[in-house]
From TrEMBL, chain A:
Alphabetized UniProt keyword annotations: Centromere, Chromosome, Nucleus
Location within or outside the cell: Chromosome, Centromere; Nucleus
Cited Pfam families: CENP-M
Protein's organism: Vicugna pacos (Alpaca)
Protein name: Centromere protein M
Nucleus recorded as keyword: yes
Source taxon at top rank: Eukaryota
Regions crossing the membrane: none
UniProtKB/TrEMBL annotation, chain B:
Name used for this protein in its record: Centromere protein H
Subcellular location, principal: nucleus
Subcellular location: Chromosome, Centromere, Kinetochore; Nucleus
Pfam families (UniProt xref): CENP-H
Domain of life: Eukaryota
Species in which this protein is naturally found: Vicugna pacos (Alpaca)
Family: Belongs to the CENP-H/MCM16 family.
Record flagged with keyword Nucleus: yes
Coiled-coil ranges per UniProt: 72-99, 123-157
Keywords (A to Z) from UniProt: Centromere, Chromosome, Coiled coil, Kinetochore, Nucleus
Length: 180, 245
């Protein structure tokens, strides 16, 4: 399967799967570790990938949330994410995709401008989160946020859907009326 | 390349065999004891939510093809209608979101105020500053409004004066034209012609009389240069009367 579709498989009982896409292996591992340490009533599964498309021979569960990790220190990670975005079906972007920009703390090392990522998130109408994944405290907080988002996207929180969350996460800086 | 890592972060549900024993703990996780009823209810809520999601996706992907062939113009009109609907929904949604944000903000503010000491908080200072600024803004706006009113009055007066001067100039011009017209008409009237003819006749008669007197005086061979009164009269007779005309 070359394109990821959100609802082509049945969900596993009490299971929520998140897919982290990014070039920095170490950071992704650390983030995955922090997420799994979180207290959560449902089973969490974390998949890591360097880029899409994913190999089709593996039997994997339904993916509920994709997080594209962009390291602001390297252009390569941005290009990797941009290419991977082509392999995601459009219906995924209804709240089940999120962008995470890391490395904004060290301004001197940043080769990707913050605005580039902001525009990318705006084009795909998805929320953009900033986090310095190398700092333990920030990573734990971000892991908590991601776990909560994952629960909502997997449908484990009654009354809130991924689309609801998407409209709630729209900040007043980029109002959705702009699209009119 | 893909990697997988799995871990159970919560208690494993008890076997359906009904053991009901203590929950299994995986790794170094703290056990979260959850009895079967709670688990089942939670799973029920989850499944309901997931079913809702799938249903809404199915509804959204339904395609309804029209049965009859509709003309292109009607299709365009329909498209416009639909676009209008979408825009209206978007606007309504934005309004609702704003209202929701406002409500959230006001409840948070209320809770905050209940907790904090009213007199010495930065929040109260901010609010007082906001009130002062608002008063200032209102005052300045009032002043601006007054000045604009004055400006408007002055402009109105200027316009009125301009219009008055225009009408006056127009009157002057019409009067001048009338005068010129009268003058022209007068020159061509018969009365003047008669008067002119009479004038000519009189001048001729007077010239003849002048010549008669001149010849009388010259014929009498009187030395008119000596007597000043006679000299004056002779010189006067020399006056050419046609120059008067």
């Amino acid at each position: 399967m070359s394109v990821l579709r959100p609802l082509d498989k049945l969900p596993g009982l009490n299971t929520a799967t998140i897919l982290l896409v990014g070039t920095d292996d170490v950071l992704l591992q650390q983030l995955a570790g922090s997420m799994l340490k979180e207290d959560c009533a449902s089973e969490l599964k974390v998949h890591l990938a360097k880029s899409l498309p994913l190999p089709s021979n593996v039997n994997r569960p339904r993916i509920d949330l994709i997080v594209f990790v962009v390291n602001l220190h390297s252009q390569h990670s941005l290009r990797n994410v941009e290419e991977s975005l082509h392999h995601v079906d459009a219906s995924f972007f209804l709240g089940k995709v999120s962008f995470l920009a890391t490395g904004a703390g060290q301004e001197s090392h940043c080769s990707v401008h913050r605005n580039t990522v902001v525009k990318l998130a705006h084009t795909y109408r998805s929320p953009l989160l900033f986090c310095d994944l190398e700092v333990e405290g920030f990573r734990t907080t971000m892991a908590q946020r991601l776990v909560r988002m994952l629960q909502i996207c997997a449908g484990h929180v009654p009354g809130v859907s991924a689309l609801n969350l998407l409209s709630l996460l729209r900040s007043t800086e980029n109002p959705s009326l702009e699209d009119l | 390349m893909e990697k997988q890592s799995e871990e159970q972060a919560a208690a494993e549900p008890a076997d359906s065999g009904g053991e009901g024993g203590p929950p299994q703990v995986a790794g170094a996780q703290a056990a979260r004891p959850e009895d079967r009823m709670t688990l089942l209810l939670r799973l029920r809520a989850q499944t309901k939510q997931q079913l809702l999601e799938y249903n809404s996706m199915v509804d959204a992907n339904e395609e309804r093809t029209p049965e009859q062939i509709i003309q292109e113009k009607q299709i365009e009109a329909k498209i416009e209608e639909l676009e209008k609907e979408i825009e209206e929904v978007k606007v309504a949604f934005e309004m609702k979101k704003l209202a929701l944000d406002r409500m959230q903000l006001s409840t948070a503010l209320k809770k905050n105020l209940e907790k904090m000491d009213i007199k010495t908080s930065a929040l109260m200072d901010n609010m007082k500053q906001i009130l002062n600024l608002n008063k200032l803004i209102m005052k300045l706006q009032q002043e601006t409004w007054d000045l604009e009113e004055k400006l408007l009055d002055v402009r109105k007066k200027r316009l009125q004066l301009k219009q008055a001067s225009e009408s006056k100039l127009l009157e002057i011009q019409t009067e001048k034209n009338k005068q010129k017209g009268d003058l022209d008409s007068m020159e061509n009237s018969d009365k003047i012609k008669n008067i002119q003819q009479n004038l000519q006749k009189e001048i001729q008669i007077t010239t003849v009389i002048q010549h008669v007197f001149q010849n009388l005086i010259l014929g009498s061979k009187v030395n008119w240069a000596e007597d000043s009164a006679l000299k004056e009269m002779v010189l006067q007779l020399e006056k050419n009367l046609t120059m008067i005309q």
